[in-house]
Amino acid sequence: MITYRSYEEKDWQSICQIHDRARPHELIGSCDPRGFVPIEQDEEVEDLKRANKFVACDDETVVGFVGVDEDYLAWLYVDPSHYRKGIGRELLRIGIREIGEGAWTIALDGNKRAIALYESEGFVEIEQFAGSNAGYPCTCLKMKRVK
Predict the structure, then answer these.
(1) Which of 75, 82, 117, 131 is geometrically suited to a Cys-Cys bond with 63, CB 3.0 to 4.6 A?
(2) Does the predicted model carry a pTM greater than 0.85?
(3) What CA–CA distance (Å, rounded) separates 39 from 76?
(4) 147 against 9, higher pLDDT
C-alpha cells in the first residue's frame, strides 16, 4: 500500500535516486539524453532543497516525490519501477492542494505522459519557450491549472 507524507531529511538520498532514475525517461523525445545531470551535480539542486516536499512510500521505501515553491509545482518524480500505479497523480494532487489557486509548472514538450497527466488535472499550456538542459536545447511548456 502506498502512503503519502511530508518529506523528512532522511529522505534526501531516496529522492535524489528517484530523480536520477526517472529523469532520463523525461528527456526521451524532449532533449538530447546527454543532457542528463544527476540532481546533486545540477545547479537546480538548491531549488529542490528549498522546495516544500512530500513523498510517496511503498512500506518504508520512498518511491516518488513532489516539490512546490510558492505557486510553482517544481518537482514531480516517481521511480520508474512504480510507474502507472497512480502515484504521480496523487503526488500532483497533493502539490495542487498545497499550492491552492494559481498552480503552474514547466514540462518538456516531448514528455507526453507528464503533459497528459497535467492536462487531466486541469492544467493548460499557456506558453511555449526555448530552454536548455545542460547545454542541450529543448522546448519547454509553461502550464497553468485552470480548474
Answers:
(1) 82
(2) yes
(3) 13
(4) 9
